[in-house]
Specification:
Length: 242
């Protein structure tokens, strides 16, 4: 099992399924975890369950992120905070929703990286950042013009950050999950006309679980991944390989 003794790990989006699963697995592995998310009640329940610390800030506000992270000692970051936006074609997209998706998923992750990495560099212990991207950044998915664009931007943030932060011993990677079937995603992905062609194309023919996404995130933060940086790792049952 991976162990984490070098310093705290910040997880954004921890009030959601993948983020909360990541917090649980990190705490089980011995990490000190700081959790951020939109749903305060869910965060408080997670803190009571795991012993993690809660740190509120707004992913759309640079001032909020700066104030929360300035001087905060961190060794690792999981950028899991995200906004799904809408299902729309390029011809139909609401540009205000597009802007919000980009603001949270790409700009927000970049701002967290900007301010968290300053502390990581200051401490001089290296570190690791994992960005939670999506299979939608790797292939074209119908209706995903906003979400896919934001995650493609996030993948490039990963690559450039890996290049720039490598000299400080800080690794940066992305994971690119397939669909985790939650009540929030079921309204679109569980419709037969969407679900059946998708799962028939995927070699493993099933949805992912939250823990199946969290486990590779924890691995990429661990010493077992000490020579891995700048990658976008599909966790998609083989969908993007087809």
């Amino acid at each position: 099992m991976a162990t984490f003794a070098k310093g705290p790990i910040l997880v954004t989006g921890a009030s959601g399924g993948i983020g909360a699963a990541t917090v649980r697995q990190l705490v089980t592995a011995g990490a000190t975890v700081i959790a951020n998310g939109r749903n305060t009640d869910a965060l408080e329940a997670l803190a009571a369950e795991t012993g993690c610390t809660i740190l509120p800030f707004d992913l759309e506000s640079e001032d909020s992120i700066r104030e929360a992270l300035d001087g905060l000692d961190l060794w690792g970051v999981v950028n899991c905070g995200g906004f799904g936006g809408e299902i729309a074609t390029p011809m139909e997209t609401d540009i205000d929703i597009f802007d919000k998706v980009i603001s949270v998923n790409a700009r927000g992750a970049l701002l967290v990286t900007k301010y968290a990495s300053r502390s990581m560099i200051r401490l001089g212990n290296g570190g690791a950042i994992v960005n939670v991207s999506s299979q939608a950044s790797l292939v074209g998915l119908r209706g995903h013009i906003s979400y896919g664009s934001s995650k493609a931007a996030l993948d490039n943030i990963t690559r450039v950050s890996a290049l720039e932060l490598g000299e400080y011993g800080i690794r940066v990677n992305s994971v690119n999950p397939t669909v985790v079937m939650t009540p929030m995603s079921a309204w679109h992905w569980d419709r037969p006309e969407v679900r059946d062609p998708f799962l028939n194309t995927m070699p493993l023919h099933r949805w992912a679980t939250e823990d199946e996404i969290a486990a590779p995130i924890v691995f990429l933060l661990s010493e077992g991944a000490s020579m891995i940086s700048g990658v976008a790792l599909p966790i998609d049952g083989g969908f993007t390989a087809v």
